[in-house]
Amino acid sequence: MADEINVLVTLNAGYLPPLKVMLWSLHANNPKETFSIWLVHASMTAAQVAEVQQLTDQFGWHLHNEHVTAEFVAQTPLIERYPQEMYFRLLCGQILPATVKRVIYLDPDILVINAIRPLWELDLQGKMLAAAAHRGMTKLVDNVNQLRLGTTTSYFNSGVLVIDVDQAREKIKLADITEAIEKYSSTLILPDQDILNFLYGPDILEIPEEVWNYDTRKYLVYQTRTLTEHDIHWVMAQTVILHYCGTPKPWDVKSDGKFTGLFLNYQQQLKRWETTLASVAE
Predict the structure, then answer these.
(1) 10, 17, 177, 247 - which has most CB atoms within 10 Å?
(2) What parts of the sequence cross the membrane (predicted)?
(3) Block means of pLDDT (10 residues each) for the chain, length 282 residues?
(4) Which of 99, 155, 168 lies closest to 129 in space, CA to CA?
(5) What are the angstrom distances between the C-alpha of 9 and each of 67, 85, 106, 145?
(6) What is the pLDDT of residue 142?
(7) Which residues touch 161 (CB under 8 Å, ≥6 apart)?
(8) Domain segments of the chain: what residues?
């Protein structure tokens, strides 16, 4: 259906629990929307996919289980410490059916706390992608990464993307990614994000990080940068996507950040719902 919002997620089983919390928050704050969830993975079991299906069925959404073949996985670059699944977002044009024209990609370590449709309806102005840049107080991060990667654009975070999948099918090639990794492997810090910026930076439309990819570690930075305008009340009213970048993650016992409690509350809501559903089934 044309009115459905396509959401792409790519992960392994280790991120299944936070993915479910993310989907719960997406539904809670977009109750009138219908989503098609494109679950792209290489190793999740039928039981693990069924956990996601239980959620999407209850929400009236459509789940598309896109199990990437072993042959395709064998071609994707493998860098120590980073799962191959992270490249599937860039290569979604080679994985998703031709009927999919646009997707919103979301990392699993995210909460969606307001309406996401404006992002879905964003005018890409001819660009292939839309993304936010996490700058901190100044553009120092951009400058450092421009020197490191030889780029001229902002350094974009890959955790939230709007992707014109038709353009991605034409422009994003596995051979280009592999060549770049082989050539610059010694300078890559976050390989998929570095490759996104190195190869495709000029084809990315910048979107406001405070709204669409809020780094939960940087609350005081956002406040300072806006002369305290972006306080917690502003965030809860205006920010759509909270991104729990870095470590510890909010589900870790060591996490005690500004937004940890919010994540734990959504996690608790989900567990209560799952418990109720299980008791009804009995």
Answers:
(1) 10
(2) none
(3) 87 96 98 98 96 97 96 83 85 97 98 98 98 72 57 86 98 92 79 88 97 97 93 98 97 97 98 92 73
(4) 168
(5) 12, 10, 6, 26
(6) 55
(7) 89, 104, 105, 129, 130, 131
(8) 5-210
Q: Write down the pLDDT at residue 137.
A: 47
Can you give the three-state secondary structure of the chain, one letter per residue? CCCCEEEEEECCHHHHHHHHHHHHHHHHCCCCCCEEEEEEECCCCHHHHHHHHHHHHHHCCEEEEEECCHHHHHHCCCECCECCHHHHCCCHHHHCCCCCCEEEEECCCEEECCCCHHHHCCCCCCCCEEECECCCCCCHHHHHHHHHHCCCCCCECCCEEEEEHHHHHHHCCHHHHHHHHHHHHHHCCCHHHHHHHHHHHHHEEECCHHHHCEEHHHHHHHHHHCCCCCCHHHHHHHCCEEECCCCCCCCCCCCCCCCHHHHHHHHHHHHHHHHHHHHHHC
Cα 140 to the center of its chain, rounded Å: 24
The reported pTM is 0.93
Structure tokens at 280: 């009804």
Residue found by looking up tokens 């044309």 in the block = 2
Backbone angles phi, psi at 62, to 5 degrees: -110, 130
- Please name the residue that has the structure tokens 């290569």: 91
- Tokens representing 155 are 């350094």
Q: Which fold has domain 5-210?
A: Spore Coat Polysaccharide Biosynthesis Protein SpsA; Chain A (3.90.550)
Q: What does the block give as tokens for 147?
A: 């020197």
Q: How far apart are CA 227 and CA 249, in angstroms?
A: 28
